[in-house]
Structures are given as C-alpha cells and as structure tokens.
Amino acid sequence: MQDLLFYIFSSLTLLCGLLVVFNPFSRNPVTSAMFLVLTIISMSGLFVLLKAFFLAAVQILVYAGAVIVLFLFVIMLLDVKEEERRRFQKFGTFLGFASVAGLAGIIINSIRQSEIGDALAFKGEGIGETRELGHKLFTEYVIPFEIVSLLLLVAMVGCILISKRDESKKEGTQ
Amino acid sequence: MVEWINSLPPVMWAAGLPASEQFAIFSLLKIVIAIFAVVMPMVAYSVIAERRISAWIQDRVGPNRVGIPFTKIHLWGLGQPMADGVKSILKEDFTPAHVRKIYFWLAPAIAMIPALMTLAVIPFGNTVTPGSGEANKAVIADLNVGILYTFGIVSLSVYSIVLAGYASNSKYPFLGGIRSSAQMISYEIAMGMSIIPVFMLVGELNLTKVVEYQANGAWIVFKQPIAFIVFLIAAFAETNRLPFDMPESESELVGGYNTEYSSMKFAMFFMGEYAAMIAVSAMMVVLFLGGWTLPFAGLNESADSLGMGLIQLGIFISKLLLFMGLFIWIRWMLPRFRYDRLMDVGWKRFVPLALANIVVTAIYLYLTIPK
Description:
A: mainly alpha; 8 helices; B: mainly alpha; 15 helices
C-alpha cells in the first residue's frame, strides 16, 4: 500500500512538475500555476509517506496556500495574453530537457554512491515530529535559522522600499 | 451517532478482515456519516435559519410556507431546504459562452472540498469506552499536526474564488476574485498568528489534546481573550461573511465571483460558504470554548457510556450552533467595511496585536513555568 502510494505521488509530482513548464495543451500561465499547486500537494503526500507530517502540512500551508495564490494574483493583474500566444522555442525546450536530465543524472549518481539508504530507513515516530523539529531548530541550528530569517526580513524591507519609492515619485510628478 | 457505530461489536462481515482494513472501513463510515448525516443537513438548515433570522431582524416573516410536500402541513417552513435543493438541481445549468470552461467547472467543486476536509481533524465528541470495549475516539483523523492540517486545507479554499473570478472572464467576478485573494491571505496571517498563544499554553498541536487541556482547567477563551477576538474576526473575513464580504459585495460587484454562475454550480458556492462557516465554528469551539466539555456535572470527564458520549456530542453541536447564530446575526446587523479599511484593520491592527499577544504569552510562560 505504501509502495503503491509512493509511486502514485511521485509520478504525479513529476508529471505535474513537467506540465508546469512544458504543457503541450495550454500556454496559459494560470494553468501552469494550478499544476504547480498539484505538484506541491503531491509532494506533501510524499512527505506524509516519510512521516514528516509537519513538513507536509507546512508545505501546503505556505506554498499552495499563500505563495501560489500570490503568483495567481500577479498573473491576473499583469495581463499575460502574449505569453499564451508564444510558441515553444525548440532550442529552449531542448536546453531545458538537457539540463533536467543532467541534474537528474548527478542526483541519482550521488544517491547511489552515498550510504543514505540506511539513514532513511528510520523507525518509530518519524523524522518530522514537530517538537523535535522545534528543539533542533532553536538549539542546534539556531544560527542558520536566524540568518535565514534575517535574509527574509531584508527581502521584505527591500520590497517595501522599492514599491514605496515608486509611489512617492508619482506623487511628486502630480 | 459515530460512537454508536464504533461501539457496535465488530460487524459480522468485517470481522474476518485484518485490523488495518477494519480501521479503513470504519473511518470511511465515519466520513460518510459525518458529511451526509451531519454536515450537509446542517448546511441546508443554516441557510433557512439565516433567512428566517434575517426576516425577524428586518421585521419580515421570511420563508414559512414549505412543509411536507402534498400536505397542508407547513412546519414553520422547515421543508424549504428540500425545495431549494430540488430547484437548484432542476434549473438549467447555463454556461456563458465567454468563460474558461475547465476552471469554470472546477471552481464550485473546490468551494466545497476544503471546508469538508477540515472537519476530519475536529474532535466532535469525547473518547467513549462502552463497557469493556476499547476506547473509541470521536474524531475521523487524530493527527498530531491537527491545526496545521486545518490551516493548510483552509488556505486552499481561496482557489475556488480566485478561479471562479478568473474563469468567468468578465469584470465584476474578476474584481471579486482579486479582492478575495488579497483579503483571505491577509486574514489568514492574522488568524494563524492569533492561535499561536493557544498552542504555547497547551504544548501540543493535536486538537484532541487542546480539548483535554481545557477539560482540566479553564477554557482558553478566558485565558486568551485577545487571541479569541482576533480569531473570531479573522474567521468572518476567511469565510467571506459580512461585514467582510468584499468578494461578493452585491452593491458594487453585482454578485462578485459568482455573478456568472447559475443553478447547482451557484448552489455549490453557497453550500461551500456555509460548510466553511461550520468548519470555522467547529475550530473555534475546539480551540477556545472547550470542545465537548462543560465544567459541571462530570461532563468534562471521559464518557463511560454511550448516552454520556451522545450528551457530549450534543454539547459540542450546541456550542457550534451558537457560533453559527453569531455569524448570521452579525451579518444582518453590521454594514460592510470599505476595502482599504479592511486591509488596514487586518495588517495594522490584528497582525501586531496577535504578535504582541505571542510575546506577552511567551514572557508569562517564561516567568511562571519552573525550569
């Protein structure tokens, strides 16, 4: 049952991921965004199979629930009809597939060489236990965690600064 | 009702199956019963409750005619949901020519699903241990990350409105869709922040544990009144109810995102809204009002008989109905917010307030909990 679910979720993840960037039926950016949602939901299914429940829930909450809604928001506000008319460029398609194949090759190779197989065969509670994760995050990995949050803060301040400057310019010209 | 099924001796046909399959079958039964025997009738009757209560508030009579079909018995209009249902199904399902078909069909379905899925982790009753049998949990899925699951699923419900607005391919639905995506994301943040202190007190993300914590002490609404108020108001915004029904706002946007919809597709949006109200009320009952407990007559202890379990289920449902009543009452008492005011309140008042609440709770816990 678990194996079957793994194959279903992983093939869904790959298929939907492919359809995000390479959809022969529609060049509509909204369709791509919706396939991205499906990719993320099936990925969180994979996390559930790994018993990383926290990660699975947060994945849906943050990515499917917020980030991609903002994508949609932007796509809808900018009128992207031009994108729909554009054809696939042969060179770009080839380049995309080649780079993905190369990356997949590297990952498969490194997984084969490493002995990660044993480490993943965990038992019991699962690696994603929320309490454990919190403890690890705020003791062992507190510095990387704080650095990441600082980075996010900088990005946020930057966003506000850029959009603010535009506004004041407009007001100045009026 | 669900306890009753659980308390049955292993049903004959299921007796031969292995434990995991029995669990799957009983979970499926719980889901079917919870949805079709509890939630759906509740959705239908909250619609008529809304219409009757609005009529009382506005000094009208409201729909009081439909009773049992083919008789003269009116039953105070309690047959109305049936008539509404038949009407929605039999009406012509008109699809305008200019819509994007796939999303136009998808959006009403997405409106229902998240609201119903949320109910899976709500502990709607106590653990019942009938006689010498094993304990039966009155929750469909007792997840350890219960609340994160609910928030994840609730956050998906924005897609129905966004897609409906986009698929309709006309001005007003589009504006409604855009407004709602901004509104729902903003208030989700306030909502999520507001309940963090609750879980700081409880120390668990599991909703069953939250109720147990409240059974042994005061309800969280008394310990975290600010969290409760922020959550309650954010819940109005999340379910698109007045005073925050920007996506719909009839007077400016015709009907908002559902302008182009008719018959059953429209009814799906309608039902989705009420199902979301039920889900969010259930969450409030569990998080702040002690779930199935009442602090007297031993009602906050684990039930040892089926009758006790049913009484506690009744307590849970009456608390839920209290919130539904509040939702309906508020809708007909308050005018609609202006859109910029709505955003201001969300970002400049509730988010800082909720953050301050987290800090205060953290300081309190740091000072009181012995190390």
